[in-house]
Amino acid sequence: MTTLGFLYPGDHLAEDDFPRMEILFDAVRLVVNHTTVDEDAYRTDALMRAGAPERLAAGVPELQRAGVECVVWASGAGSFLYGWEGAHGQVAALARESGVPASSTSIGFVHAVRYLEAARVAVATTYPEPVADLFTAFLHAAGIEVVATRTAGLASATETADWGPDRVKELVTAADRPEADVLLLPDTALHTVSYVPELEELLGKPVLTGNQVSAREGLRLADRRAWSPRLGRIFAAREAPPAPVTGWGRGRAWARSGRKERSGGHPGPGRWGA
Predict the structure, then answer these.
(1) Mind giving me the DSSP string for 141-199?
(2) Contacts of 106 (CB under 8 A, 6+ apart)
(3) How far is the CA of 180 from the CAs of 121, 124, 152, 169, 235, in angstroms?
(4) pTM score, two decimals?
(5) Strands 207-209 and 145-151, how do they pair?
(6) CA torsion, points 206, 212, 214, 219, in degrees to nearest 10?
(7) Which of 33, 55, 189, 253 is most buried as measured by Cβ atoms within 10 A of its Cβ?
(8) Nearest-CA neighbor of 70 among 257, 216, 251?
(9) Distance in angstroms (rounded) separating the CA atoms of residues 157 and 112
(10) Which residues make beta-bridge pairs with 145?
């Protein structure tokens, strides 16, 4: 059993996405611990306070007691608002505090986009425009081209958590562009796990969402592979099993015989069998 730890800002938002994902994974446990938020507001000052080192550190002991193999700070704005260097410093401090590898949702987006070998992305956010612009800047710092950004301009995570699939579909449709290889939904307060394949079918391309990407980042840190097409194309590729051993009998017979090939003493293709 692989146990992944997540620090999630606030309560009663979209944290129920994590048990849904846990059901879809094989032998993977997703442990979520809530961090405190003093103000539920989509302003840069409030969001940066949510990602302050002391707040993240306070949530670590509960995850350590659960025996997690890594920790992911499951917040979009609470990580990318620190900038590219600042976000890496944030998770480095979290790793030192927890004693296990650590990362964040924002860094996870970068790894996921690179995994999909996407050259260009479109962004659909529930954030106000000034916050959304900082996510675009974060992606640019990582070398990712953003071709379009659409903002819903919501004021809080509570408002975001109230959105259903229809409103999300309207937002991604408005944000998408033909030249975008992938569409990103960075807010972890947005419920998306139950219908990522629907969004991908609607747009005809991969869709990466905050909680889905957070789970993938935890799996990456733990060096654990997971397959579940119900969580979108990022989880759709099952790794091929090892190739069957062929010609094993011939290779064994060759080894016992002591015979050598004319070209330097190595058997020809297929004769070793492995």
Answers:
(1) HTTPEEEEEEE---S-HHHHHT--HHHHHHHHHHH--TT-SEEEE--TTS--GGGHHHH
(2) 76, 79, 80, 87, 135, 138, 186
(3) 5, 12, 19, 16, 20
(4) 0.86
(5) unpaired
(6) -90
(7) 189
(8) 216
(9) 24
(10) 120
Angle at 118 between CA 151 and CA 222, to 5 degrees: 95
Q: How many CB atoms lie within 10 A of CB 103?
A: 26
Band of residue 238 on the pLDDT scale cut at 50, 70, 90:
low
What gap in Å lies between CA 91 and CA 99, rounded to an integer? 12
Which amino acid is residue 230, in one-letter code? R
Q: Which letter, b or e, does each residue of 196-214 get, where b requires 16 or more Cβ atoms within 10 Å of its Cβ?
A: beebbebbebbbbbbbbbb
Q: Cα 161 to the chain's mean position, in Å?
A: 19
pLDDT for 270? 32
Q: How far apart (Å, rounded) are the C-alpha atoms in residues 219 and 51?
A: 22
What are the tokens at 73? 């700070």
Task: Give the CB-side neighbour count of residue 80, counting CA atoms within 13 A.
Answer: 27
Exposed/middle/buried for 251, CB within 10 Å: 0-12, 13-18, 19+?
Answer: middle
Let me know if 248 is exposed, middle or buried by CB neighbors in 10 A (0-12, 13-18, 19+).
middle
Six-digit token pair at 58?
Answer: 């306070």
pLDDT digits (tens, 9 = 90+) for 119-169: 999 999 999 999 999 999 999 999 999 999 999 999 999 999 999 999 999
